[in-house]
TrEMBL record:
GO terms for molecular function: lyase activity; phosphoric diester hydrolase activity. InterPro entries: PI-PLC_domain (IPR051057), PLC-like_Pdiesterase_TIM-brl (IPR017946). The lineage of its organism: Eukaryota, Fungi, Dikarya, Ascomycota, Pezizomycotina. SUPFAM superfamilies: PLC-like phosphodiesterases. GO terms for biological process: lipid metabolic process. The keyword Lyase applies. It comes from Coniochaeta hoffmannii. This is Pectin lyase fold/virulence factor. PANTHER family: PHOSPHATIDYLINOSITOL-SPECIFIC PHOSPHOLIPASE C X DOMAIN-CONTAINING PROTEIN (PTHR13593:SF143), PTHR13593. The keyword Lyase applies. Transmembrane segments: none annotated. It comes from the Eukaryota. Keywords: Lyase.
């Protein structure tokens, strides 16, 4: 449970059987539940109550069972006292937690990760982040985002267990909340353009596989941008190579015709933003300049529709796609200068990954002297460690620009139906970090704390999204079950899994 409100969470309902726990502002606490597994399964319940200090509104976490089920141990998150919803989670694994992120305030309204609000979360925060530099702090991103499935265009020992890194296609990754995409684009022999995940793109036949086609990625982005105005999407583009399936020759760098075709595809992207920078005879002078723009410079472009920003990775190869400012295609160096840190831990154990990421984060103070930082986490059991370990290492003086995840939004491998099979943790985390933690850094956020002094427009937008669910569910106060069933109109006093008189049996 991660508290991104301006209130400390303290023990709520007072009973001898209820845990006495506190949860500071901008901190996460992992609640451990021990389930008694016997030869004869029996129902069991446990619960903990948090109250917002000075407000008195309670959050309830209940451990319960779902027998018979492949996932017999479940957790109920009940936020009805905050005007939000109840949701049942199948516990993903013995050492992998169900996660809830809560942000907001009495003045601003409350938002939680247990159901999805409007998908244009940047637009919802426009008046909060408009004066912050690009990319807005604590943006949500995905590593090897194109690998939501394995395709047959190129496969060399690549399979879902060692090559697939996402459970969703780009469109649903966008709906979950991702705005920074790590894209590796190749051609295979003389065929179309594909996203890929390989161990060494400089080899003729590297190990790995292709994923989503580049054409379908563009279609997904355009579909999302047509439905959601006022968003900024960054596409970090690497791997401009031709892989071989029929030849052991060295891989071909893209020839001029291939590069021209590639740029023709980029031109199909909706809401490109040309001429954000002034052309100079010395390209080095442009390093990091895009990152000095205010978010409003991109949020408000295209008559408020926002921006899609392709970023070409510049490397030493002679034949490579070059940036074209007039076409709205930029260099990755324009936003990530040499002082930026894309820190990969290269560790095998979740605990050591979390510690390594957290320790590196502490070396980058947010006082204007350090560069940008990317925070990396992957699915079970790594994604939950982002909340139970990594978040507590963040502070107003130390936070990443982009948080990159594998299997974004996925609670269990193999489940990926939007919205009720997925989790909004990363989206609400980014919203909450921008609303509360980053807002306490006067260098990164010049405006006052929006949770206590919300801009009129921001309050108006967010109060309408305090517990919405999907489109048409703005007043949703229902119950979401782990199997995807939704009770839209439960009895007002129904709290599934609660023991009698607010006490465990």
């Amino acid at each position: 449970m991660f508290n991104l409100t301006p209130y400390r969470s303290v023990r709520g309902f007072n009973h001898s059987k209820v845990q006495d726990l506190g949860l500071s502002r901008c901190h996460a606490r992992q609640n451990t539940i021990e389930y008694a597994h016997t030869d004869t399964p029996v129902d069991a319940n446990a619960e903990v109550f948090y109250a917002l200090e000075g407000i008195g509104k309670e959050s309830e976490i209940r451990g319960s069972t779902d027998i018979p089920s492949f996932f017999p141990d479940v957790t109920w998150i009940d936020l009805t006292a905050l005007g939000l919803v109840q949701r049942q989670y199948r516990n993903p694994a013995p050492e992998a937690s169900a996660t809830v992120v809560i942000t907001g305030s009495e003045q601003y309204g409350y938002i939680s990760s247990i159901n999805f609000g409007p998908t244009n979360w940047m637009h919802q925060l426009h008046d909060v982040i408009k004066d912050r530099q690009v990319p807005p702090p604590c943006d949500a991103g995905v590593t090897r985002c194109r690998m939501g499935r394995i395709s047959s265009a190129y496969v060399n020992s690549g399979r879902s267990g060692n090559t697939q890194t996402q459970g969703l296609q780009i469109y649903d990754q966008l709906r979950v909340g991702a705005r920074w995409f790590d894209l590796r684009i190749v051609t295979v022999d003389t065929s179309a353009f594909w996203a890929a995940h390989v161990n060494d793109e400089s080899k003729a036949q590297p190990y790995g596989a292709t994923g989503q086609s580049f054409d379908s990625i563009i279609d997904d982005i355009n579909k999302f941008m047509a439905e959601n105005s006022g968003e900024i999407i960054f596409l970090s583009l690497r791997y401009p190579r031709r892989l071989r399936t029929l030849s052991y020759d060295t891989p071909s760098l893209w020839d001029p015709d291939t590069i021209k075709t590639f740029y023709g595809k980029l031109a199909k992207l909706r809401n490109l933003c040309p001429d954000l920078l002034k052309v100079t005879d010395n390209p080095v002078l442009l390093d990091g300049v895009l990152g000095k723009l205010n978010a409003s410079d991109l949020l408000d472009r295209n008559n408020g529709a926002g921006c899609v920003v392709p970023l070409i990775y510049q490397h030493e190869d002679v034949n490579k796609p070059a940036f074209d400012i007039s076409a709205g295609v930029y260099s990755l160096n324009h936003i990530l200068p040499a002082s930026s840190y894309d820190h990969w831990s290269h560790k095998d154990i979740p605990g050591t990954v979390a510690v390594d990421q957290a320790e590196f984060l502490q070396t980058l103070p947010r006082d204007g002297t350090a560069g940008d930082m990317f925070f990396h986490h992957a699915i079970l059991p790594m994604n939950p460690a982002l909340y139970s370990n990594g978040i507590n290492a963040m502070s107003p003086g130390h936070f990443p620009n982009v948080i990159l995840q594998d299997y974004l939004g996925c609670l269990h491998p193999g489940e990926g139906e939007f919205p009720d099979d997925l989790g909004a943790e990363i989206r609400v985390l980014c919203i909450g970090l921008n609303l509360y933690m980053v807002s306490q850094n006067c260098i990164a956020a010049p405006s006052a704390n929006p949770l206590l002094n919300p801009p009129p427009k921001a309050k108006e937008k967010t109060m309408a999204t305090a517990s919405p669910g999907t489109a048409g569910m703005d007043a949703f106060r229902g119950i979401i079950y782990a199997n995807g069933t939704v009770d839209y109109n439960p009895p007002p006093n129904l709290h599934v899994g609660r023991g009698g008189d607010k006490c465990s049996n």
